[in-house]
Amino acid sequence: MTAPEDKATQPRRRASPDYLPRQHILFDVHGRLCSYCGGALHLGESVSEMLDWVPAQLHVVRTTRPKYTCRACNTVAYSGAPEPFIDGGLATLALLSHILISKYCNHSSPYRQSQIAHYGIDLCRSTLAG
């Protein structure tokens, strides 16, 4: 019998559907040498995806930050990324604005908003209400 996977390695949410268009943003470091010891940096990456709202269209904003490691001193270098508007959230400011305008200006309840979301994205009512 195999041991259950560690909770830290399990994804916290479902992946964004592959059919949504994606906008790729790359944040890279300046230079390819370690700022501490001057050794060569080697490539890895950290990737995150958030849902964005373009009027009447959803697309995924994919942010990539290459990670460079120095094999001489074991340091890691990569550029910072902008902080999400909600910690751990997957929505951009445009999608949050759309949800709030639908709720407060259009008087659309979270139940109704979750029914309208016919883009193949499962936005549960508790998330919309929170």
Number of domain modules: 1
Number of strands: 4
Distance from N terminus to C terminus (CA atoms, Å) equals 40 Å
Run of helices and strands: EEEEHHH
Q: Which class do the helix and strand fractions yield?
A: alpha+beta
Q: Largest sheet, described in full?
A: 4 strands, mixed
Q: What does the overall shape look like?
A: elongated
Oligomer: single chain
Radius of gyration: 19 Å
Overall mean pLDDT? 76
> Ranges with pLDDT <50 over ≥5 residues?
none
Strand content: 25-35%
Total of helices: 3
Residues in helices, as a percent range: 10-25%
Structural commentary:
With about 130 residues, the protein is an alpha+beta fold. The protein has one domain (about 20-130). Helix content is about 20%, strand content about 25%. The protein has helices at about 95-105, 110-115, 125-130, and strands at about 20-25, 40-55, 55-70, 75. Strands 1, 2, 3 and 4 form a 4-stranded mixed sheet that branches. It starts with about 20 loop residues before the first strand and ends with a helix. The model has no long low-confidence stretch (mean pLDDT about 75).
